[in-house]
Amino acid sequence: MKFGIFDHMDIGAVPLAQQYEERLKLIEAYDRLGFFCYHLAEHHSTPLGMAPSPAVFLSAVAQRSKRLRLGPLVYILTLQNPLRAYEDICMLDQLSGGRIELGFGRGVSPIEIEYYGVDPNQSRSIYAEATAVVMQAFAQDTLNFEGKHFRYKGTPIEIKPFQRPHPPLWLGIGTPEAIPNAVKNKIYMVCNGSSQQVRALTDVYRDQWAKAWGAGPPIVGMNRHIVVADTEAEAVRLAKSAYHAWYDSFSLLWKKKNIEVPLATYSPDYQESVARGFIMAGTAQQVGEMIERQARDCGINYLMCRLAFGNLPYAASLRSTELLASEIMPRLRKAS
Q1: Is the pTM of this model over 0.85?
Q2: Spatial CA neighbour of 282 closest among 229, 332, 240
Q3: Going by DSSP bridges, is the β-strand pair 142-146/151-156 parallel, antiparallel, or unpaired?
Q4: Which residues, at least 6 apart from 290, have a Cβ–Cβ distance to it below 8 Å?
Q5: Phi/psi of residue 175, each to 5°?
Q6: Where are the alpha helices (DSSP H) in the chain?
Q7: Which residues contact 72 (CB under 8 A, 6 or more apart)?
Q8: How far apart are CA 328 and CA 333, in angstroms?
Q9: In DSSP terms, which residues pair with 152 in a beta bridge?
């Protein structure tokens, strides 16, 4: 059982410069306490994502950590030239000494993509071409590509990643249709949903991986909002306020456009989200039992913890981190 961090970098209750610095201090703790990886989301024109340039923030993360792996989850390839994205990825992998875990995506929000002048109806084909360009750049010293959206002829590739042929690849998977390509290319799976929804996907993923490669996949992950405190009452108080603040940021653009909020697994109602398993709040004993039960029910071996979200104070996120690392992670690693 591995434990990592997932971070939207949604807007908090302190000035943004302070939020960045406090997050970097938390990341130093993640590094020191043995978390596997720090995954950063990319969002635009929304308080859900105050780190719209993952490369910029992750370059700071690389300098403030030594063992922690790091990477975008996901890098939105529909919003930039893929050759430029490739160069950023290589720089980050070199700066970090080969610690990048690389997630690609086309962008979950059509509203954000449209703000950048990209037709959401074209996003799948743009993403497919952009991914092909990046993978070709990893594999070759000269880039030749002729597509509908991108064209390169004899473009020299002078920079390569530290990890060869490329960093490990990640993909957020929400439907079974995405699994065959992920398995074919040895892409790690992460997902979100209720235990039943996640299990339906992880069973297919494990089965197809075993048929293709003769063994189980090394990483099958999901993410959850987590608050651990010294008392249940304190954890719930913190989690409820922070979740409501996070959900306001999550849903803001959709409400502005009068569009039904997607990802119905998230509810504006705190108790309903707890019941669905998306929030774990309590003492170390209580949260440890929740994680153990969900890991078993969902068929995962990697939990990406959201320990900083909404209006959670830095001190509360740090306490969650410390309790998780000292009282929960050792027991669950041993049990697995």
Answers
A1: yes
A2: 229
A3: antiparallel
A4: 277, 280, 282
A5: -140, 155
A6: 16-33, 54-63, 82-95, 110-115, 123-139, 179-184, 195-213, 232-256, 270-275, 284-298, 314-323, 329-335
A7: 39, 40, 41, 42, 54, 55, 58, 102, 103
A8: 9
A9: 145
Contact 92, 100 (CB under 8 A): yes
Q: For residue 165, say if its preceding peptide bond is cis, omega within 30 degrees of 0.
A: yes
pLDDT tens digits, residue range 243-255? 999 999 999 999 9
Report the candidate in 212, 216, 213, 169 with the shortest Cα–Cα distance to residue 190.
169
Rounded CA gap, 270 and 325, in Å?
25
Q: What is the pLDDT of residues 271-295, one digit of tens each?
A: 999 999 999 999 999 999 999 999 9
pLDDT, tens digit, for every residue of 102-157?
999 998 899 999 999 999 999 999 999 999 999 999 999 999 999 999 999 999 99
**Residue 271 to residues 267, 276, 281, 297, 312, Cα–Cα distance (Å):** 9, 9, 11, 20, 18
Strands 220-228 and 102-105: unpaired
Which residue type does 195 have? S
Please give the torsion angle defined by the CA atoms of residues 74, 76, 77 and 82, in that order, rounded to the nearest 10 degrees.
Answer: -80
- 120 φ, ψ to 5°? -55, -30
- The mean pLDDT value of the chain amounts to 95
Confidence at residue 100, expressed as pLDDT on a 0 to 100 scale: 98
